[in-house]
Design brief:
This protein has 421 residues and is α/β, with parallel strands linked by helices. It has three domains: 3-101 and 198-261, 3-Layer(aba) Sandwich (Adenylosuccinate Synthetase, Chain A, domain 1), CATH 3.40.440; 104-146 and 149-195, Adenylosuccinate Synthetase, subunit A, domain 2, CATH 1.10.300.10; 264-420, Adenylosuccinate Synthetase, Chain A, domain 3. 31% of the residues lie in helices and 20% in strands. It contains 13 helices and 19 strands. The protein has helices spanning 16-23, 76-88, 108-121, 133-141, 149-152, 156-173, 181-195, 203-211, 245-250, 286-291, 309-319, 358-361, 389-402; strands at 3-8, 29-32, 41-45, 48-52, 65-68, 73-74, 97-99, 104-105, 216-219, 259-265, 268-270, 303-305, 307-308, 323-327, 337-346, 349-351, 365-372, 406-410, 418-420.
């Protein structure tokens, strides 16, 4: 039995979807345990190109069963759309996708409030995806949440009435339009009927799988530094993103997590507000345009920067990462020189990521090491030895800094464009 957690070692967008897609070939179960549809995982394989938000990215492996744990918050309309998309593409999910009844639902008022809160903050806005993630997690911990189990116990209507009375007052006070009870009730009843065949308690399924020595692949949403506690608060997500969240969000005991794969992009990106120490400010520069990306979930242009080894090292330590999956190494091809941040200084004194808060992190000076680049196109490389010497040295430098091996190297967006060491 192996239980492998796949996490992002930066601010999300590291390429976890691709990593989970190819690692799932050896998994019996692949599971989401945190976050919601604010996560966007892009998968490119023989079935086509998919942007996955709630269904585990490993669902394409025919012998794998997908699990959505109780730690995941669900927008039913998004989940139904994904299931229909996968079935249409020939990726049948019936009988091998299960949803925990403990999952909390993103309601229309959560999305409305998410937007109204951001607008009310003005220049101090957090930069959320406006998918309702923060408000639904706030309701979860303040005993105001609605779960799938409320439908089975006939508590949905009464709980919805109470919540709409509360939420409509806030929405109207902030300049929004009140929601109508009947419209929300009917829409969510329909969602429940469509998803009911996929809803089942996962506890026995997970525990029996562990006893039977099945292989589990746990898929994190977001990234380490969007964690509520260890991320750049308040510019974070609303859930715990480190592997320990799988215990609460799925029911996996911590001692069973034997491997942690840290997915690391060969440079750094971030969506939304918050500190990014190695950010490249010159938006008209060749490097900025080369690194430029669009977020899978929001469509927003990602902020870009050089690789930050201080961030990667901290993620390795926080999450107990045992091996790295380096993605998008091919994007660096064509550069004469590459900058890599090896440490921080603040007021001429060395500091680590954990020594400062978000506002202090905005003031640190990244100390760079300049390494030689390579001109060759590495998109067709399928072995480490096929990489140019300078590309090999770049990988070895990351291994030395992190203190763990780089076992997979992405040289293109497709599943097959991966070097396995």
């Amino acid at each position: 039995m192996t239980v492998t957690a796949v996490i992002g070692s930066q601010w999300g967008d590291e390429g976890k979807g691709k990593a989970v897609d190819f690692l799932a070939e050896q998994a019996d179960y692949v599971a989401r345990f945190n976050g919601g549809n604010n996560a966007g995982h892009t998968v490119i394989n023989q079935f086509g190109t998919f942007k996955i938000h709630l269904v585990p990215s490993g669902i394409f492996a025919r012998n794998t069963v997908g699990l959505i744990g109780g730690g995941v918050v669900i927008d039913p309309a998004v989940l139904i759309e994904e299931i229909e998309m996968l079935n249409k593409a020939g990726v049948g999910v019936e009988g091998r996708l299960w949803i925990s009844p403990r999952s909390h639902l993103i309601m229309p008022y959560h999305k409305i409030l998410d937007g109204l809160y951001e607008e009310a903050k003005g220049a101090g806005a957090t930069g959320t995806t406006r998918r309702g993630i923060g408000p639904v997690f706030a309701d979860k911990v303040s005993y105001n949440g609605i779960r799938w189990t409320d439908f089975a116990s006939n508590m949905f209507e009464s709980r919805l009435q109470v919540q709409l009375e509360l939420k409509n007052k806030i929405i109207v006070a902030l300049g929004g339009q009140a929601l109508k009870y009947e419209e929300v009730r009917d829409a969510y009843r329909e969602y429940y009927l469509k998803l009911k065949p996929y809803i089942r308690e996962l506890f026995s399924l997970v525990q029996d799988g562990l006893k039977a020595n099945k292989n589990f692949l746990l898929e994190q949403a977001m990234g380490t530094f969007l964690d509520t506690d260890w991320g750049t608060y308040p510019f974070v997500t609303a859930s715990t993103t480190i592997p320990s969240a799988a215990s609460a969000g799925l029911g996996i005991p911590p001692r069973y997590i034997t491997n942690v794969v840290g997915v690391t992009k060969a440079y750094t990106t971030r969506v939304g507000a918050g500190p990014l120490p190695t950010e490249i400010k010159a938006t008209d520069s060749e490097v900025y345009k080369k690194f430029g990306e669009v977020a899978a979930t929001t469509g927003r242009v990602r902020r870009v920067g050089w690789l930050d080894l201080e961030v990667v090292k901290t993620a390795v330590q926080i999450s107990g990462v045992t091996e790295l999956c380096l993605t998008k190494l091919d994007v660096l091809s064509g550069l004469d020189e590459i900058q890599v941040c090896t440490r921080y200084e603040l007021s001429c004194n060395p500091v680590r990521y954990a020594d400062v808060d978000s506002y202090g992190l905005e003031k640190v000076e990244p100390i760079y090491k300049t390494v030689p680049g390579w001109k060759e196109d590495i998109g067709q490389a399928r072995s480490f030895e096929a990489l140019p010497a300078n590309a090999q040295n770049y990988v070895k430098m990351i291994e030395e800094a992190a203190g763990i091996p780089v076992k997979w190297i992405g040289v293109g967006p497709e599943r097959d464009a991966t070097i396995r060491r």
